[in-house]
Every structure is written in structure tokens, then in C-alpha cells.
Amino acid sequence: MTVHNEANVGDIANIVIMAGDPLRVKYIVENYLTDYKLVNQLRGMYCYTGYYNGKRISVMAHGMGIPSMGIYSYELFHYYNVDVIIRIGSCGALVDDVDLQDLIIVKDSYTESNYAYTFDNIPCQLASSSEEINGIIETTAKENNIEYLKATTLCNECFDLYLPEKDAIQKRAPEGIELIASEMEAFALFYNAKRENKKAACILTVVDVPKESRGMTPEERERSLNDMILLALESALKI
Q: What is the CATH number for 112?
């Protein structure tokens, strides 16, 4: 047990799918897993362990933002012997050629956060996902006719919809880094995975775009969410 997780070592599978919203975790478990058990509910960050097509998998909430993801992913890697984490979540587009419901496999995550500097006294702003896990996800997407983009995204400390000038961060980014979408957790996940010699990936669905005033309808969100969940679970079968 840790101060954030009441599960015992062994209660959590070595492959974990993480989502920010605890209710999204509950939705995944109730609709896709069998023989599942709730192993953590401290602070409302549900973690369930069950089976997907015979594969033992855990699904856990990570909350919002770099600090929250930093805590939960670190503890899973460091204390619970987790080898692979796949995050699924939503993001906002930062460029005009990204559309609502587009699915993004994150290659690299760029941040202006001081997470790495604070943790390890390292001035690191770019963290990479696992090429091995990304390769599995891409193969699985093609097998299931799921279209995707693969790109660098921004791991933001501010909710992108509230930013008065979205282009400012893009302009400040180092030369050669093109940010196509904004989310709030992938950098901490990728950084912790590298730090602990583990593997991590992130799959995102675009839920708002600058060129449109509307967001996704509930029906669009559910359909896109299900594609993302299916892609993560089917990929986990190959790990």
C-alpha cells in the first residue's frame, strides 16, 4: 500500500490502462472486462483488475494534470511492478488540419512544466513514448480499421480551452517541434516510464478544435471513446 493506493502488490496486473476520469474507468471495466475486482478506491481513483479475452489487465484512474499522473504512474511502476501503462484520454487540437474525433498516438510529449527538473534536477521538456508499444498499437489500429495520427503533443499545465492565445506556446516551442494537440498528463507518464525503465504509450481523441465552435456530441464522444478503448485493450493482448 501507498498513501494513494490501497491495493496490495499483486492486486494490480503488469499491464495497466489509465484514464483520467474514474467514471470512464468504471465504464471500461463494466463494458469490456470479466471477473473484475475493485482493488483501489482511495481518493476516488478507482483501480480494477480483471480479464479481457483471457488477458489479465488493470484499469485505473489517474486524475487531471501532470502532478496527479506523476504520482499514480510512479507508484505503479515503482511499487506495484507494473511494466506497461497505456493512457487513453481526450485532447484539444492546436492546428487546423486536426479534426474532431481524430485519434492520435503520441510519439513525443513536450511540456513547459518543471516536473523533471523538480524530480531529478534535470532540465527536460521532451519525453518519448515506447516505440515498441506504439508499434503494437499501430498494427492493432490497422487490423481494426481504426485511422490515426502519430505526432508530438503538448502536455499543458493549463486547460487549452481557457488559453487566450493558443499560438503562444507553439511559438515558444524549440525549433523542429510541431505540436498538433494539447493534453495534460503524457509527459509525466513518459518521463516516469523512462526513469523506472518501464514502457508507456498514450492514445488521445480530439474533442475540440479551434476551427469549429462546437464540441463533440455525447454520441460522438461515446463512439470515439469506444474506438480508443478497443484499440488499447486489443493492443494489450499482444504485449
A: 3.40.50.1580
Expressed as residue numbers, the domain containing 139 is: 15-236
208 classed as catalytic: yes
Residue 7 lies in a domain: no
Q: What is the pTM of this model?
A: 0.94
The answer to the question of residue 6 being in a domain is no
SS (H, E, C) 108-148: EEEECCCHHHHHHCCCCCEEECCHHHHHHHHHHHHHCCCCC
Cell of 84: 506497461
| Spatial separation of the C-alpha atoms in residues 21 and 65, rounded to whole Å | 12
In a domain, 141, yes or no: yes
Cell of 54: 483471457
As to burial, measured by CB atoms within 10 angstroms (0-12 exposed, 13-18 middle, 19+ buried), residue 109 is buried
Catalytic residue among 11, 120, 167, 208: 208
Is 1 inside a domain boundary? no
In a structure prediction context, what are the per-residue pLDDT tens digits for the chain, which is 239 residues long? Answer: 788 989 999 999 999 999 999 999 999 999 999 999 999 999 999 999 999 999 999 999 999 999 999 999 999 999 999 999 999 999 999 988 898 889 999 999 999 999 999 999 999 999 999 999 999 999 999 999 999 999 999 999 988 777 777 788 888 888 899 999 999 999 999 999 999 999 999 999 998 887 666 666 666 666 678 899 999 999 999 99
